Amino acid sequence: MHAMALTQGWKDTVDRGVADATWDAYDTTIQTEVTAYNLKFQKSPGYSAVDWKLFKAIVWVESGGPGSSAWTGRAMQIGVPGDTGLGVLQRADEGSVLIMSKQLAAEVKNSAQVGNDPALNIRAGIAYVFTRMCLSEFQSVIDDPNVQSYTVTPGDNLSIIAKKVSTTVQVLEELNPAKKKMIHPKDVLKYKHASIQRVITDWRDFTTTTVADRYNGGGDPDYAAKLVYVLDLFKKLNRQAPKNP
Amino acid sequence: MKRILILFLALAATAQVSSRDQLYAALLEAKVLNPDRQLVHLSHTCTLDIDGGKYLVVDLQEIVKSETSPHGVNRIILLDSQWKPVQKIEYTNHRPLFCLENRLYVYGDLAIDNLAPEGNVLTFSKQGRVIKLSHIEANAYPVPITRDRKSPPQ
């Protein structure tokens, strides 16, 4: 990946951030959010702590900095008319419900607010990146570890019983291996309360290339190169970040 | 006999893409195309045979103009014989390559709705409503070399 494809005009725009501390205005918002996700998913399979500066780079790339109208509105450009990201969060699609806090899930319902509040736009954008970076599956999840019992009645099968007692066929099969193929009336089956839930099973690596693919959706062929360019610029920064505007 | 011939011709016509204008109109009518986006690519990749029916695979790429970097909305659209959308499968760079019977081969492994497993072979059933993903090595694509084939992928 090379930066030669990037236009001088675009580079001039983001280069301004090196000398202008107002470009750091959302550092606290980004750090707070990414730290919370790193804590939340630290034990999630395949997850490695993410560097918050990657998201700072996304904000610079997406907004074009404090000179743009996006900076004080859609700083991460989620919710732009025609974009699919905000709708995914609002409908809790693609497993986003596993990513967002309940508070954020409620806040993103207000499209106008996501468009006008740059901090909320950034939090929504970060949530969408995390949503797009995880892989999930529907699995049988134990809701209550206590073992219960159920006496089979005529007409029952494992699927019917699972619905009757709020468990899953998988749990019934695991706790009653001898009854997997055939059950009879008056058989007593063990079960635990369980349900089928969407569960995160893996994470993609948070590289500039993958994040570009997953967040930008293949719209800008230079997106990953732009992230690399901005991340290189950050090495030149040496200043105290101001508070959020 | 005449009725049978007419029916045959009608059925054959439903799976044909006679014009990209018609395809564009059908996707607009079905609200697959979003008026806030810029359509930058539209093509009929191939035709699947699912449960005896013909289904068009359409490769659609739209972009959303943004402050500095356009966002992409790339999708594989499956249309039934009446050109009604049956599936809209989002992808980033996994463009559809070719069809073989009820299987669509794409470039690289994609996940549908962010659900595992990922795969580069999409096997369709139940009139296109059910998709099973699996993976095949690119070197094992089940297509003949060009010298040995008489027509492009259907």
What does this structure look like?
The complex is a heterodimer of chains A (245) and B (154). By secondary structure, chain A is of the alpha+beta class. Chain A folds into 2 domains: 3-136 and 200-234; 144-192, Roll (Membrane-bound Lytic Murein Transglycosylase D, Chain A), CATH 3.10.350. Chain A is built from 11 helices and 4 strands. In chain A, helix 3 (52-63) crosses helix 11 (223-234) and helix 10 packs across helix 11 (223-234). The longest helix of chain A has 16 residues, at 118-133. Chain B has one domain (16-148). Chain B is 15% helix and 47% strand. A 4-stranded antiparallel beta sheet of chain B has the order 1-2-3-4, covered by helices on one side. Chain B is globular and about 45 Å long. Chain B starts with a helix and ends in a 20-residue tail after the last strand. The chains are: A alpha+beta (245), B mainly beta (154). At the A-B interface, helix 3, strand 1 and helix 10 of A face strand 2, strand 3 and strand 7 of B.
List the helices and strands and how they pair.
The complex is a heterodimer of chains A (245) and B (154).
Chain A: H1 8-19, H2 27-40, H3 52-63, H4 85-90, H5 102-107, H6 111-116, H7 118-133, E1 134-142, E2 148-151, H8 158-165, H9 169-175, E3 188-191, E4 194-203, H10 208-216, H11 223-234
Antiparallel strand pairs in A: 1-4, 2-3
Helix pairs in contact in A: 1-11, 2-3, 2-7, 3-11, 7-10, 10-11
Chain B: H1 2-14, H2 20-29, E1 38-50, E2 53-64, E3 71-79, E4 85-91, E5 96-100, E6 103-112, E7 115-125, E8 130-134
